[in-house]
Fold this sequence. Notes:
heterodimer; A: alpha+beta; 41% helix; 19% strand; B: alpha/beta; seven-stranded mixed sheet; four-stranded antiparallel sheet
Amino acid sequence: MAYSDKVIDHYTNPKNVGTLDKSKTNVGTGxxxxxECGDVMRLQIExxxxxxxxxxxxxxTFGCGSAIASSSLATEWLKxxxxxxxxxxxxxxxxxxxxxxxxxxHCSVLAEDAIKAAINDxxxxxxxxxxxxxx
Amino acid sequence: xxxxxxxxLDNNATTPMDxxxxxxxxPYFVEKFGNAASRNHSFGWVAExxxxxxxxxxxxxxxxxxxxxxxxxxxxxxDNLAIKGVYEMYASKGNHIITCTTEHKAVLDSCKHIExxxxxxxxxxxxxxxxxxxxxxxxxxxxxxxxxxxMYGNNEIGVIQPIKExxxxxxxxxxxxxxDATQAVGKIPVDVIEDGIDLMSFSGHKIYGPKGVGVxxxxxxxxxxxxxxxxxxxxxxxxxRSGTLNVPAIVGLGKACxxxxxxxxxxxxxxxxxxxxxxxxxxxxxxxxINGDKNHRLPHTANISFKYVEGEGLMMGFNKNIALSSGSAxxxxxxxxxxxLKALGLGDDLAHSSLRFGLGRFTTDEQIDFTIxxxxxxxxxxxxxxxxxxxxxxxxxxxSIAWEHH
Lengths: 135, 406
């Protein structure tokens, strides 16, 4: 199976690989997937407390090229968005942007789940209710 | 020596044809095109003679009688013919077949077909080293057992089953023994007499011959084995496999067998030295595991799991330059990793993290050097990107996390 150029680009030069300090109250962490399924994504957001804007996002992913690309793309899209705007990111946007084939759609679903899990973690830490349920 | 890219290290899937094989085949397309079954003119005689010669070349490689060689379209057909053909032919004796969980799909799916027909099949598990338990095999034999179907060398992990011991058990209980030897023939010495094999399948394209041609060896003496044909027609191949013979491919298969017979001993030494060098270098990486028994293994195969990185993602790091395969099934709809690795008791995570290296006649030391570096670099890069690697390094027990399964 051939990968799209965009997947190859994100795989070769992944954006925002790394770890944020999860003990900070303005950092939300989402860890989704499972090793047995061959995909684990950890996505983190750091929210500017005054503006509510995501000022930094990092990921680490165990998975295929499409999973790495989906999470890399997700971190790019998250930066500069408000938490509410971030909730609007849909997995099909990722599919479209990366030209993912049908067998790789689950990678985009996982990225959307990771975003929502990170936001939920951030909300819980800040005394807010969990907003959304993951898939 | 110049390094030509991409490098082919998937010789368990198929091998490039040896140019000497192609040379042998070429006259049989245009010039000597006859039907080997045309008994009444010279075109037919020329073709028949070529097939007879190839049959001898094939028989010699495995120490069989040429009359015991049935040409087919490949190992899949041979596996089907052996299992279904024995099941039908020996229906009055019983309906039970014993096989194992790490067999090729052509064997497993033929066995499933038998079950649909009302037959009984025992699927023996394998031990962590990939070998079957001989006492368990013997215990599974009933008075209804007609066939034991256990492969010679495994295609994914290269493990060689104890063939002589298996055939001794089969003989002791009056059960036929069939082995899929697709990965073993031409790579290691296979002797149907010494190994006590009753039926055996293999194919041309795994031994530097053409695709679309294979063999089913069917023993003629002690005991005389028969299979019910699965392809009816002109009664070719002693009535066991009808269909006009694929003369050029058979000629190629014969030549491929001859080359293996003459060069295999030396080639096996060269390949296993390269394989061991590859393996030892890669094992310098932390948390890296060899899958399958190291002492009973085909010389050209290595299957290695690189924990905390996913196989398909790993391959993407170098698949522009190196062709090999992974036990990860990220591309398949089922998302199930290799059933062979799972049968060894490997966790899904290790199965997803595996690469299979299949070396071959045309693999060079330079290619191995390049591969070692590319795989090591990619594993290191992906581990830096892997949340599981980070957890491992921080001492977090990954099994203690409540993972969400999709």
